[in-house]
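Collaborator request log, item 7. Partner lab (contact: R.S.) asked for a structural prediction of TadE family protein to inform their binding assays.
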Amino acid sequence: MTDERHHPIFKQRPSFRFTSKSARRRGAVLVEASIVLPIFLMMLFGIFEYSRFAMMKNLMDHAAREGARYAVVHAYDKTTAEIQTFVRGKLAGQERQLSSGNPTIQVFRVNPTTGANLGLWTDARFGDWVMVQITGTYTSAAPRLLLMNSTFQVRAQAMMRCEAN
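Returned to partner:
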């Protein structure tokens, strides 16, 4: 019985030279990173852009709802300009992200079934419906990176019954 340390197979030297494992992996890591990094960045910026859009849409919905509430309570003692100023205040300074800082804010009496404009909101009587509508052009922060349109239309609207007498 021969000693395992002195077995003939261990005495043979390979005819080719092994390179270290880290030297072989160095190039593979660079190739893998060049494939994964752009995909990761697109996903990261996509999440960022979607979050920005969701925040803006939520803010518009909130401002329209608050504006409609303010309009139906003050139908006889406020003007359209005052309602628009109130709504702009509820946009919390973020209106600059819409239509270069100038979104369209409309206040009108509305048919609740069809959504048709029935005229001035100040003519609304108790029980009539009043709508506040905010329309703007949302501008994406990184449209080329995300392969999407740079601008698109967004709209928020809220409709409530007039409570003023």
